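quick one, two chains, predict together pls
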Amino acid sequence: MADLLVVLALTLVVAAATAAVLTRDPARQALVLALLGLALAVLFTALQSPDVALSQLAVGSALTPLMLLLTVRKVRGRGHRGGRKRGRA
Amino acid sequence: MSRKARLWLLAVGGIGVAVLLACAAFDLPGFGGTSHPYGERAVRSALARHTANVISSVNFDQRAFDTLGEESILFAAVLGTVVLLRETRDEHSEPPETVRVDPHVRRYALIALPVTLLIGLYIIAHGQLSPGGGFQGGVIVATALHLLYIAIDYKALERIRPAAAYAIADAAGEAAYVLLGTAGLLAGSVFLANFLPYGTFNTLSSGGTVPLLNAAIGVEVAGATVVLLARFLDQALEIEGGGTGGTGRQDEEANRS
């Protein structure tokens, strides 16, 4: 039973990780990365390491995707707004 | 070196690493076996020092010096981010436009905020007893505050989150860890020695210096994460100009000469 859970969690991790690699749009990738973090947290819980699962959940599913999304916004907004400003001047 | 020679070199290196990894893997104990030499010693040692959460005993007592290194890595990384993402001379700050928030999102975020904050503080406070600790709880506390940005807007978040105060908390947490370690050196025998009474097993004050070091890490990580996200948010929402690539810097150089 416990082994089945580990195998299921591992499959989920492999699927999420492959999806993260295959997604090309960075904003969507951040979302898939959050799901990968969730899958890893499930795997760590199944392997009886709740400490690591908590770290993974807090950093991998919340903090890293948030930083990625903010970076995407900055990089996209810069070309857009900067272009408009320079056009006006 | 020609392309073919480079590929050969890569292949030899890759095969070498693969063979070494395979050899190492064959020497590992079987998956989920009953013999855990390191685990058994760590558990015995944690119980002897009245720390219910063995992981915290390893992090803040048996291997407390390693944690000082990890904490310093986070501290230095955030310091680097603050320097890199500062507002440069050719950039200017503009207050972000207010955005209409969907009432459902607002309601959810405002309910989730206090609950998440409480969970984070609970996880920090019970680091010596149950899974989690200063690191996990610190990140949760810091991200919980940012639900205010989702619920209302950036201005509301900035009001409850003076980044300078959190930067001081970050440094104070780091300093507290080193000072507690030095106290161990003065009172006991070595740096980061567990010199306090171990207390009653499975109570909040058990574990000697473990809860104190754990709290120091909690303050440091919460402060560091808030400062880190503040710099990213400032860049994404407020700071404008500077141009793409090196144009701004080239202009500056042209002005100087």
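Helices of chain A lie at 2-22, 26-46, 50-88.
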